[in-house]
Each structure stands twice: as structure tokens, then as C-alpha cells.
Automatic annotation (TrEMBL), chain A:
GO biological process: double-strand break repair via homologous recombination; meiotic DNA integrity checkpoint signaling; mitotic DNA replication checkpoint signaling; mitotic intra-S DNA damage checkpoint signaling; nucleotide-excision repair; telomere maintenance
Record protein name field: Checkpoint protein
Gene3D superfamilies from the UniProt entry: 3.70.10.10
Annotated family: Belongs to the HUS1 family.
Pfam families assigned to the protein according to its UniProt record, in alphabetical order: Hus1
InterPro entries according to UniProt: DNA_clamp_sf (IPR046938), HUS1 (IPR016580), HUS1/Mec3 (IPR007150)
Keyword Nucleus: yes
Automatic annotation (TrEMBL), chain B:
Pfam family for this entry, one: Rad1
Lineage: Eukaryota, Fungi, Dikarya, Ascomycota, Pezizomycotina
Keyword tags: DNA damage, DNA repair, Nucleus
Primary subcellular site in the record, as a coarse category: nucleus
Organism annotation: Lophiotrema nucula
GO terms under biological process: DNA damage checkpoint signaling; DNA repair
Biased composition (Polar residues): 244-262, 374-383
GO CC terms of this entry: checkpoint clamp complex
Ranges annotated as biased composition (Basic and acidic residues): 351-361
Region: Disordered, residue numbers: 69-94, 240-271, 342-383
InterPro entries with a match to the protein in the record: Rad1_Rec1_Rad17
Family named by the database record: Belongs to the rad1 family.
Acidic residues: compositionally biased ranges: 81-92
Subcellular location as annotated: Nucleus
Protein name, UniProt field: Rad1/Rec1/Rad17
């Protein structure tokens, strides 16, 4: 069982692990020849199924195993994210699966060139503070002019999962969505939804205790470019409506049944209802979600991808976050499954 | 929407939610605020256990459109018995009054703009790069267009804030008003009045707050023909005193003693713009709970001027003049009920025993224990 790769895009990988980490502490990472899958299945809340093309984050990539060159790992995201953070200024970083005292771990080797501080009496060794599973190996490049190379190896203990263990895990199945819409910038959405959550908590201050369960955001969208987010408490009800958003067209090649499938698609029916100014009460597909959980989902906004939200009325909200890729093909996509609370 | 046949009681449009936010934030110390709608504007008032109250008046000049239609007076006139208090409202019987959640209103008013991460970026770095000179509302000064409406008695107070392609509607539940009496302040029989800069009062209160005092004593008198206004605070850790003298000498700042003895040069600008005692020989002294006065700190920090008044019963009125934009002023008012003073039998303040939250253990300043090591005592004259 071998896995070795150099990390091409440390910033993206760091932001990616940070966003996943907000939803759950452990990720199931499936490494295979053509893609890397990260899956978070928390006990409660939103599931994430992310499929990354290899070159979204890795460069030279080798994976070998007895089971069709697939390796399944359970990775603690906090440690991985912390290790990656220390690599943000690195000139290069490598990750490989190894063993130490018979315990499997992901070793992250970070090479940093510190040529800035030639006047200092002592070389600065990256400034990493001692961490568990951290080994520092400072090497003096001694190429004159204070050009020094620092190599830091961060070790993240992992668990190797047998194929049988993960065989029972399946991506959630969902019916065809009623409304699909491209969301406004997630950071904007997040700043407003955070304020809504705060408002709801302020409104229920009197009846504390039940406050945590009360932060139910209602999200709705129609097929005319409108998105509505609202929250209701005893003291108030507030809703924000975005207009002029985009409802992407369905591709007949991707929908079961082709053109006939599109004609019978729920979203085609929803197109007949509602208006583009968002004032009509008709044509909305609505879900009720937990405000804090939503705030965590929104943290993926830092990756800056395009987000398509699919609303299954009163059932679920599915977010597809497309990561920008250089070559335009092999798009990486993060899929968030948010289930709706009943009214 | 549904009841088109009946015109709303209030429709007001403001081009800046931020101005409204700035004023209302000054009185943000209570969960519920009373709202009075009148021909002249909106009055928001809050109180704290009837020992202090604060009110902000949003004059109709703050709004670009302000339409008030008095509702048919189904109710009998409101049981306000203080006959001399209605400076803003001539006829209370047609003035709709209700309560709303003030924190919710404040959160709504700042939902955009203040926290929008886009605002701190230059236009080319913003997320909605599609905006052009004509589509971007900010260029036309129409950011945070805010519309307040109140359809009919019992209806929610709705705030609609529009920014670019986002429209936020907030319906605040309106509650029946508590008919708590206003703190009576007799402006016909003032004991003392002074006007000064708000920031000076703010500095004094922040300075005094460092000792964690329980009570604040206001002293006003004429000393050697010169006005003297002092604020002294005392608490378990000691006491401190800030004096405002007209024609102060800058060098005497922070001097431990003798601020009164120094003969000030006559060409200094007056610290106290106005200083009036009902009787030039009188000695005004009354005490208030420090924590309550501190709640007006935000108003002090943003006010251009403050008028400090106390009536013969010792009720303190602080009226802040706040400049929301150059040349446009608004007023925020606070009133405080004095603490009962036990030792000064001749004080006017003694007659007012209205304070239900009067602290019986608060001893007058003279016998507050001062631990020698911890005692902080300073005298200074603010420049």
C-alpha cells in the first residue's frame, strides 16, 4: 500500500480541509487512480461528499494497493488542517502514507526557503511550535547570503479502513429537485444568515434553553432567479430576498429521459409558477435548516467556487460547490446534503 | 398589501439606515422600546426599572418621505398624567404607541453595509463585479434605502431595507405599551443647568468608571464668582472627582490640589457653555447610580453637545445633541431619578423618594470606607 504526492495548491487544500473540518472532525478519504474523495458524515447535520480531481491539489501522484489501487483512510481533519497551515509559505510540500511504530500516518514534508533574514544571528526554523506528531529537521542550505532551506515534517496519524468497512457507505439518494439556482456569493449569504441566527437568539433570550433549537432558517428559491432566506421568532419575522440570480438550464444529456425527462422535470413545472420580483407567494421550493449548521456549510465560501443549490421542496437542499480549476476539465465538486426539518 | 383600502398609519423612507442606527444605538440598554408615532417623527423610548429612561427622537427631517395618517381614535386618550411633558406631541390621543424589540430593530438596521465585507474592498475587488456606474446603487447615494411602515393599530412595524438586488423585510411584532409614567422632570423649576461638549462628559464618566463606583454625585455651585461643576464617584474601592471649571488653566490638569486656588487666565474658552443656578448662592448636590448614568455613555461619545439639567427634586436630565450629518441634528434624552441622601437634611433631593431600586446600603460619600492601599482619590480640572 503506497501513497505519495506533492501538493500543488497548498492554499486551496488548507481552505478545503478547514471548511470540511467545520462540519465534522473525521473525514473518510478515498484515494484512487483518478480522483480523491473526501466524505464527512457527521452524526447530525450536513453530509459532504467531495470529489476532487487529482490536479486540483496534487501534482505528482502515485497510489498503489492490493484493492484496485484504492486506499481508504480515516483522517482527523483538525490535525491535517493544522499541518497544512504550517505549509502555507512553503516552496514545496509532499504528502505520503507511512508507518511509524506500526501506526499508519500521513507525513507532510514541508520545504521552506528562508532567505529573508540574512542579518539575524540565528537561522529561523520556520517558527513552528512543538506539536504532537511534529518533527523538525532544520537543514542548512549554506548557499551563502542566508539562503537557507527548512524542512519540517508534520505527521498526522490516520486509520486505514478496510474495503468492507466503507462498502456500506453510499451517497444519499434524492429525488429530482424542484428548483435549482446559482447562489449569490456565499460570504455575503453567510454574513446575512449569521445575523439572522443572532437575531433569532436575541429574540428568544427570554425563553433561554430552547433558544438553540429555535434557529431554524427557512430557505426558499423559485425558478425565476429569486432566493429567499427567512427566520421567525416571537418578536419578529425577517426575510431577505435576492433577485436576478441565475437558474441554470438542464443538460438533456445529463437528465434521465433526455428532452422528455426535462419536460417532465419538476423544475419545468415550477417555472410556470412565481415571478421574477420574488413578491409572489407561488413557485417557491422551501426547506427548513438549522442556522448554525448552515453557517458551517457557508464556510466553504472561502474556496470561492460557483455554487448551485438544488431545492427539493420540504425535503432537502443539495449544494454543489464547483471548485475553479485551471484546465476547465475534470471539475472538482463538493456536494453538501442538507436535510430539511419538518415544519 | 391585503388591505389596500386602508392607508397605512405611517410610511417613512430614509436613505440611510445607518443614521437611524446611530441614534437608536444610544438607547440600546433594554430589550423593549416604546415607539410613539406622531406628525413630527418617531420617538423611541426605553426605561430601566423606572429609575432611568432614555429616548431618541427620529425627526421627520431624517426621512426623505414621512407620511403620517392619524388612526381613527378608537382608544381613549392615554393615561399620561404628567401635564408638562408633551413638548413633542400636542395631542397624545391620536398618537399610536406600542412596544417593539429594540435589539431586533438595531440588528435589522445594520444588516447590510456595516458588516458587508464588500464595503471594505475597492470596487474592482468586490464580489458583484457586474455592477456598473448606473446599476450600482451606491453611486447614487442610495445604499441602505430603508422604508419603515406601520399599517394599522396592532399590525407589525415593518422595516424594508433594499440594497442592490437584495430586499430584506423585517416585521417587528408590536406589543401593547406599558403605561409606565415618564420620570417627571419639572423644566419650569430647574435647580441647575449647564451645556458642554458631549465628549468632555464622556471622558469624565470613563475616567470615573475606572474605580468601579456605585454612585455618581453631581455638584454645582458658584465658587468665588466662578461656576463650578463637579462629578464625583464613590464606591468600595475609593472615590474620584472630576471638576469642570470655567476658564481653566491647562497647567493645572492633573494637579493633586489647588485647582480652585489657581487664578485662571481670562482668555481661555469657556468649558461650560452655559452655567445657570436657580439661585446663584445655592449649592446643588444630588447622587445617581453610576451604572445607570454609564448607560448613556454611547450618547455622550457621539454627541456634539450635552445639556445637563437637574430640577429642584434632583431629577437629572441629559439632553444630547447628535449631528447625524453636517448641519442636521437630532436629540437623545436621558432622565435619572436621584438616590436618596440621608445625611444632608437640607438637600432638595431628599423630597424625591421615587426610586424603588434605591440601595439602602449606599452610604453618603462622607462615610464610604476607603481602604488605605486601594483608595484612589484625584482632583483635576478637565481642559
Amino acid at each position: 500500500m503506497r501513497f505519495k504526492a506533492s501538493i500543488q495548491n497548498i492554499t486551496t487544500f488548507t481552505k478545503f480541509t478547514a471548511s470540511l473540518n467545520s462540519l465534522g472532525p473525521l473525514a473518510w478519504v478515498k484515494l484512487s487512480d483518478d480522483q480523491v474523495c473526501f466524505t464527512i458524515i457527521p452524526e447530525q447535520g450536513t453530509q459532504v461528499w467531495a470529489v476532487l480531481s487529482i490536479d486540483t491539489i496534487f501534482e505528482t501522484y502515485t497510489v498503489q494497493s492490493a484493492a484496485n489501487n484504492v486506499i481508504n483512510l480515516e483522517v482527523p481533519l483538525t490535525s491535517l488542517n493544522r499541518a497544512l497551515k504550517s505549509a502555507l509559505n512553503a516552496t514545496s510540500a509532499q504528502i505520503r502514507l507511512t508507518k511509524k511504530d506500526n501506526l499508519p500516518l500521513l507525513a507532510l514534508t514541508i520545504v521552506t526557503a528562508s532567505n529573508s533574514n540574512s542579518h539575524a544571528a540565528f537561522p529561523t526554523n520556520g517558527g513552528n511550535n512543538g506539536d504532537d506528531g511534529l518533527r523538525q529537521t532544520p537543514l542548512d542550505g549554506s548557499l551563502g547570503g542566508g539562503n537557507r532551506e527548512t524542512i519540517v515534517t508534520q505527521e498526522v496519524p490516520v486509520r486505514v479502513l478496510a474495503p468492507d468497512t466503507v462498502a456500506g457507505l453510499h451517497e444519499p439518494q434524492c429525488r429530482e429537485p424542484d428548483v435549482h439556482i446559482i447562489l449569490p456569493p456565499l460570504m455575503q449569504l453567510k454574513s446575512i444568515s449569521d445575523r439572522f441566527t443572532k437575531l433569532a437568539l436575541a429574540g428568544t433570550k427570554a425563553g433561554a434553553g430552547s433558544a438553540a433549537s429555535r434557529t431554524r432558517l427557512e430557505m426558499a428559491a423559485n425558478m425565476h432567479g429569486c432566493l429567499r432566506m427567512s427566520i421567525r421568532t416571537d418578536a419578529m419575522s425577517i426575510s431577505s430576498v435576492w433577485t436576478d440570480l441565475n437558474n441554470p438550464e438542464l443538460d438533456p444529456n445529463q437528465v434521465a429521459g433526455g428532452n422528455i425527462g426535462i419536460a417532465e422535470h419538476p423544475s419545468t413545472r415550477m417555472k410556470l409558477l412565481g415571478t421574477a420580483d420574488g413578491r409572489s407567494e407561488e413557485g417557491w421550493a422551501t426547506v427548513r435548516i438549522d442556522g448554525r449548521d448552515w453557517g458551517k456549510v457557508m464556510s466553504v465560501g472561502r474556496l470561492g467556487g460557483r455554487v448551485i443549490a438544488c431545492f427539493c421542496h420540504e425535503h432537502a437542499l443539495i449544494l454543489y460547490v464547483y471548485l475553479p480549476s485551471d484546465n476547465g476539465e475534470d471539475e472538482s465538486v463538493l456536494t453538501y446534503y442538507v436535510s430539511s426539518y419538518s415544519a | 398589501m391585503e388591505d389596500e383600502e386602508e392607508l397605512p398609519i405611517l410610511t417613512a423612507v430614509s436613505s440611510s439606515a445607518r443614521q437611524l442606527y446611530q441614534l437608536l444605538r444610544c438607547i440600546n440598554f433594554s430589550d423593549k422600546a416604546h415607539v410613539q408615532i406622531s406628525e413630527e417623527g418617531l420617538k423611541f423610548s426605553v426605561d430601566d426599572a423606572a429609575t432611568m429612561e432614555g429616548s431618541a427622537f427620529l425627526d421627520k427631517s431624517l426621512f426623505t418621505t414621512y407620511t403620517f395618517r392619524a388612526p381613527p381614535s378608537t382608544r381613549t386618550s392615554e393615561p399620561h398624567d404628567s401635564d408638562d411633558e408633551q413638548e413633542d406631541e400636542e395631542d397624545l390621543s391620536v398618537t399610536p404607541t406600542f412596544q417593539i424589540s429594540l435589539p431586533s430593530l438595531l440588528e435589522t438596521l445594520q444588516i447590510f453595509g456595516l458588516t458587508d465585507p464588500n464595503n471594505s474592498k475597492p470596487p474592482w475587488a468586490r464580489d458583484n463585479a457586474s455592477s456598473t456606474a448606473f446599476s450600482n446603487n451606491n453611486v447614487l447615494g442610495m445604499n441602505n434605502l430603508c422604508r419603515i411602515s406601520y399599517d394599522k393599530v396592532g399590525a407589525p412595524l415593518s422595516i424594508i431595507i433594499t440594497e442592490a438586488t437584495i430586499r430584506t423585510t423585517c416585521n417587528l411584532t408590536t406589543y401593547e405599551p406599558d403605561f409606565a409614567d415618564e420620570i417627571p422632570f419639572d423644566r419650569q423649576s430647574l435647580a441647575f443647568k449647564t451645556i458642554m461638549r458631549g465628549s468632555w462628559l464622556f471622558d469624565a464618566i470613563s475616567e470615573l468608571a475606572s474605580t468601579g463606583p456605585d454612585k455618581l454625585t453631581l455638584i454645582a455651585r458658584t465658587l468665588k464668582g466662578k461656576p463650578l461643576f463637579a462629578l464625583s464617584a464613590s464606591g468600595p474601592l475609593g472615590s474620584a472627582r472630576v471638576e469642570f471649571n470655567n476658564n481653566p488653566q491647562p497647567s493645572s490638569r492633573g494637579a493633586p490640589q489647588g485647582t480652585n486656588a489657581n487664578e485662571p487666565p481670562p482668555d481661555q474658552p469657556n468649558l461650560l457653555e452655559t452655567f445657570q443656578l436657580s439661585d446663584p448662592d445655592s449649592y446643588v448636590r444630588s447622587s445617581y447610580r453610576f451604572a445607570l448614568v454609564q448607560k448613556a455613555a454611547r450618547a455622550m461619545s457621539v454627541a456634539t453637545k450635552v445639556s445637563v439639567r437637574s430640577d429642584i427634586q434632583g431629577v437629572l436630565s441629559l439632553q444630547f445633541m447628535i449631528e447625524v450629518e453636517p448641519g442636521k441634528v437630532s436629540f437623545v434624552d436621558f432622565r435619572f431619578v436621584p438616590l436618596l441622601e440621608e445625611d444632608d437634611g437640607d438637600e432638595e433631593g431628599d423630597e424625591t423618594i421615587k426610586d424603588p431600586h434605591h440601595l439602602p446600603d449606599l452610604r453618603p460619600a462622607g462615610i464610604v470606607p476607603k481602604p488605605p492601599q486601594l483608595s484612589i482619590s484625584s482632583k483635576r480640572s478637565t481642559v
